[in-house]
Write a structure and sequence with these properties.
The chain is mainly α and 200 residues long. It contains seven helices and two strands, in the order αβαααβααα. It is elongated and about 80 Å long.
Length: 200
């Protein structure tokens, strides 16, 4: 029994390792799609194989891309270029299977999948930015109130009182956070959750 189980486990692990193996494949895609891939790789610090694994792992997204591809009207004025990528066997198998199932060109599915994923990511980024802008406004108001409290404490306590020192540190942390949010919104610099001194 034990031997049978270990054979099954061995087969499963070999299958998953095989699925992760890299293969080279070529897609004939538009300049717009190539630019979208470059943008996705750069902004998310990904390799092509990782990107294709991500976009092919969401079955709903793949089906949505296939539906969009079905409605696509070919525009002969759009130039398509052959571009070779290293992707996983799993992603390639899924694209080939979807192409066969839907009777659609694999290149067209990839085209729509990439552009759809980019659009969704941009939408999510825009929504996140709006939330962070609101968060910055809330923190800025909190900073103003904290400074008012600091002034009240200064009027109440001696200059060398430890309460004032500790509260002063809180003000600096709030100020740094507000500044870090500002840099994230203006220059896309990530906020480090562990660095309370980060202000740029």
């Amino acid at each position: 029994m034990k031997s049978k189980n270990s054979k099954n486990l061995n087969r499963v692990s070999k299958t998953s390792l095989s699925e992760k193996q890299s293969v080279r494949t070529t897609f004939k895609i538009s300049e717009n799609c190539i630019n979208a891939i470059d943008w996705l790789l750069k902004t998310n610090n990904l390799k092509p194989k990782e990107l294709f694994d991500i976009i092919c792992s969401n079955n709903d997204l793949v089906n949505l891309a296939a539906e969009a591809a079905k409605k696509y009207e070919k525009n002969n004025s759009v130039k398509h270029t052959r571009k070779t990528f290293v992707i996983s066997k799993r992603a390639l198998r899924l694209l080939n299977k979807k192409s066969e199932e839907k009777s659609l060109s694999r290149d067209l599915i990839v085209e729509k999948l990439v552009l759809l994923f980019k659009a969704l990511l941009e939408k999510h980024t825009e929504e996140e930015k709006k939330k962070e802008e609101k968060a910055q406004s809330i923190i800025s108001d909190f900073w103003t109130k904290a400074e008012e409290i600091e002034n009240q404490l200064k009027n109440l306590l001696d200059d060398d009182n430890p309460i004032l020192e500790r509260f002063g540190l809180i003000i600096v942390i709030i100020m740094n956070l507000e500044s870090a949010i500002d840099k994230k919104l203006s220059n896309d610099i990530p906020i480090d959750p562990d660095d309370f001194s980060q202000s740029c």
